[in-house]
Design goal:
By secondary structure, the protein is mostly helical. It has helices at 24-34, 41-52, 61-70, 75-111, 117-140, 145-154, 159-183, 185-213.
């Protein structure tokens, strides 16, 4: 039987063991990261990758990286899990935009960072220019992918186009992460052991920067 994924626990006196931050988004970020310390890391990665494509605010890279550090030999497996679940989740985002936006759109506008009427107008313009490359860019970069999957349904982007662009964009992103941690596993692990808190804050700030970046895309 395969052994559950584990990552070494951080002692209380280590910098990475700082108490959960008061900001709700950063608390959620820390909650995602904690799954790497449990036997349910792979299942959590699949669920978070799926949910992040349509409504969950924290990107799955956080957990994928933590799991890959603990098990570098399975880095590409974690990337495949992230990719498959994320693309399927993107189809759910498209369905929400196509069939339920008038009913639930106001909830998404208030819940998801970066999703505002103004941002939606930016995305509409990007889709008019080139929907495939707009989705590809959002899938690969820190720009919130869920905004584009839902908008694709709202603005009538064909489902096959969304699926193909998502596959290449998300695949490039997740497998790039996997490549780094597969070939630099021990080195990356030592660095994260020493700078875990800094790396966590850096990823969080990158996520926030992606939200801000949408406003300047068009």
């Amino acid at each position: 039987m395969a052994q559950p994924e584990r990552i070494p626990e951080i002692p209380a006196d280590r910098p990475g063991a700082a108490p959960l931050p008061p900001n709700p988004l950063r608390r959620l970020y820390a909650w995602v990261l904690h799954w790497a310390e449990t036997r349910y890391g792979t299942q959590a990665l699949a669920l978070i990758s799926f949910a992040e494509s349509s409504f969950f605010p924290i990107p799955p890279d956080v957990l994928q990286i933590a799991l890959s550090v603990a098990n570098p030999g399975r880095a590409f497996f974690y990337a495949a899990i992230s990719l498959a679940a994320s693309v399927v989740g993107g189809l759910l985002g498209w369905a929400i935009g196509s069939f339920a936006w008038e009913l639930v759109g106001h909830h998404f506008m208030s819940w998801i960072p970066g999703m505002t009427p103004e941002i939606f107008e930016h995305v509409r313009g990007l889709y008019l220019d080139n929907a495939f490359f707009a989705i590809l860019g959002a899938a690969f970069t820190p720009i919130p992918y869920k905004v584009f999957t839902i908008a694709s349904g709202v603005f009538g982007v064909p489902l096959p186009l969304l699926a193909v662009a998502s596959f290449f964009g998300r695949g490039g992103r997740f497998f790039l992460v996997a490549t780094v941690f597969h070939f630099a596993g021990p080195t990356a692990k030592r660095l994260l052991d020493d700078y875990l808190e800094i790396a966590t804050i850096g990823l969080f700030l990158l996520f926030v920067a992606g939200i801000v970046a949408i406003s300047y895309l068009h």
